Amino acid sequence: YPVLSQLLAKYPATGGALFQVYNDITLAQKWTDVDLLDLPACKRAAIKGQRPTPDTDRGPSVCVVVPCSLSESISTSWLRAAFTSLDPLPTEIYVAITSEDTSTVYYKISQGIVKPPV
After folding, report:
1. pLDDT in tens, 42-51
2. Are 71 and 33 in contact (CB under 8 A)?
3. Helix 15-23 to helix 2-10 angle, to the nearest 10 degrees?
4. Residues of the chain whose pLDDT is less than 50?
5. Which of 28, 27, 23, 29 is nearest to 8 (CA)?
6. Helix (H), strand (E) at residue 22
7. For a 10 Å CB count at each end of the chain, is N or C smaller?
8. Count of beta carbons in the 10 Å neighbourhood of residue 16
């Protein structure tokens, strides 16, 4: 994938997670307008795109996904760095945790304390 080559070379330690999540988002989930973002503070790339929604009244929603592997340790300061590296500052991001068996789990992370929808 030429679109990934520069960031895979820049962040080889996180390249596997980026490659796996990029494939999941573009091929399985059919996101559109997918773009890669450089997050130097987190030493990795993020993926931004429009996620299709089953609700036909609303259009696709723009989401940012930060891939990481199951073997990595992440912290609140790492999450804060991910948020502050993005412009404009999003209210939420998704952390995509990948495993060696190609499973990917997405966690929605919001800034601060957010009341869950009822």
Report:
1. 999 999 999 9
2. no
3. 150
4. none
5. 23
6. helix 15-23
7. C
8. 14
